[in-house]
Protein: ASCH domain-containing protein
Amino acid sequence: MATKPILFNGPMVQAILDGSKTQTRRPVVYPADCLPVDWDAEECLIRWENQKTGERFWKPSPIATGDVLWVRETWAVGAWSGEKQAIAVGYGSIREPRMEWLSVPDAKQFKRLADQSTKDALSSIGEDENGELRWYPGDAPTRLRRSIHMPKWACRIFLEVTNVRIQKAMDMTQEEVLAEGFDCFNCFCRVWENIYGVFLAPEAIGENPYLLVYEFKRCEMPEGFLEAV
Structure:
């Protein structure tokens, strides 16, 4: 079992949290001049064939059954405590607050985040009559930070991968579309095309790529997660 990061946008995070999203699809990275010809479900391996030489070889999926994914999502510093060297995090554009202090193991990282957030708050709302910065949980006047920059200590969602497979985009069933957190296939296609720039919809002639399908369930933080490099 390996622990690996994965990015999700705001709507998909909400779909995970409400239990409607139990699958995600990601692009298959094709080796040069190769096409997939077989799939080993047990070992999560793709068999490739070089279209020029005829050579065949196996390559593993980037994510395997049994792996735990830690979700990186947009986040913000909601509050900070120099005494505790800890931060309270708000998640997503709605700044959904996490009502607990999260220890920041790296003192330099904590100082940078606290300094930036102090500057944001002073610029946005300024100090009150007592010379203090005050706001309600979820209303922090601090910058929204990209999911790719979420540190491990801020993560709140962990997913155990229960199955991995490879599938043509056009082979998705309505049940699978719902498990992706979408109401219809075209809705899924629009989001996919916006993220990856690859057209999936039936009218995009010739565009029906293989996708890696990861099925998952919510789980607890793996033991030693925060200590691992």
About this structure: Residues 74-147 form one domain.
